[in-house]
Write a structure and sequence with these properties.
The protein has 167 residues and is mainly alpha-helical. The protein has five helices and no strands.
Length: 167
């Protein structure tokens, strides 16, 4: 256990028996267990505090690097503006258009926010809603049309087959 052999453990047990006495060994062991638990909790708390402090320092370091990059970008922008004689200004962009949430809303918002990003190919809009026989019970046709195709397929696969009527 602690690098102790059988002979050393027996020696410790005999010394404990002589020093503490047989009637007080249970209470002594209980107290030793309580002290061990307190020391273990204190060491865990100390370790947790060190980890939190290291994480905080790492976050501070990443924040400082971000601030440095922002300052460098600002200086580069000012240098470019001065090189063009101060006439060049950042282009005025139209505010992003708001669209109803849908399957492409997140992609559309990022495209509208950054005009230099090439637009990914768009999917053709859904022209029809699947036949009501394919829509599981408890889901409206409108809700069904808003679900991504892979979710629709999963729901179709998990739907229990309808009982066949034998005549």
């Amino acid at each position: 256990m602690f690098g102790l052999g059988l002979g050393e453990i027996l020696l410790v047990a005999v010394v404990l028996l002589v020093a503490v006495g047989p009637e007080r060994i249970p209470s002594f062991m209980r107290e030793a267990g309580k002290i061990y638990g307190q020391v273990k909790r204190a060491s865990d708390e100390l370790r947790r505090a060190f980890v939190l402090e290291a994480d905080r320092m790492d976050a501070d370091e990443r924040y400082q690097k971000l601030r440095e990059r922002q300052k460098a970008a600002e200086e580069a922008r000012k240098t470019a503006q001065e090189a063009t004689g101060g006439a060049a200004q950042a282009p005025v962009l139209a505010p992003p258009t708001l669209k109803a949430p849908g399957p492409d809303a997140a992609r559309d918002a990022t495209i509208d926010a950054d005009p230099e990003t090439p637009a990914p190919p768009r999917r053709p809009p859904a022209t029809s809603i699947e036949a009501p026989a394919e829509i599981p019970d408890g889901i409206s046709a409108d809700e069904w049309s808003k679900l991504p195709p892979r979710v629709q397929q999963m729901l179709r696969n998990t739907q229990a087959p309808s009982p066949k009527v034998v005549e």
